[in-house]
Amino acid sequence: MATAAVPTPTSAPVPVAIPVREVLPWAAFMGFLALFLIYFVGAEQGAFAIFSGNGVHEFVHDGRHLLAFPCH
Ligand SMILES: [Zn+2]
Predict the structure, then answer these.
(1) CA dist., res. 53 & res. 64, Å (int)
(2) pLDDT digits (tens, 9 = 90+) for 32-45
């Protein structure tokens, strides 16, 4: 008589509780950071530019084209 190679679980797995109050500030921070980065990739140019010159534009230029933002 063969025995099973995988032991059968005796109890159901208990899901891990994720407290929303602890996650919410980090989610808001990451959302703000994402919007900040999307601004630099998508709109940091011309009249909307925070920094003068083309330094930021050239630094994120490939990302701009990868994300299909209009450029030139
Ligand atoms: Zn371009």
Answers:
(1) 17
(2) 999 988 888 888 77
Q: Is the pLDDT of residue 1 over 70?
A: no
**Residue 34 alpha carbon to ligand 1 centre in Å:** 21
Give the alpha-carbon dihedral of 45, 46, 50, 52, to 10 degrees: 100
Q: What is the 3-state secondary structure (H, E, C) of the chain?
A: CCCCCCCCCCCCCCCCCCCHHHHHHHHHHHHHHHHHHHHHHHCCCHHHCCCCCCHHHHHCHHHHHHCCCCCC
Distance 44 CA to ligand 1 centre (A): 12
Distance 71 CA to ligand 1 centre (A): 4
Interval between CA 4 and ligand 1 midpoint (Å)? 61
Residue type, 41: V
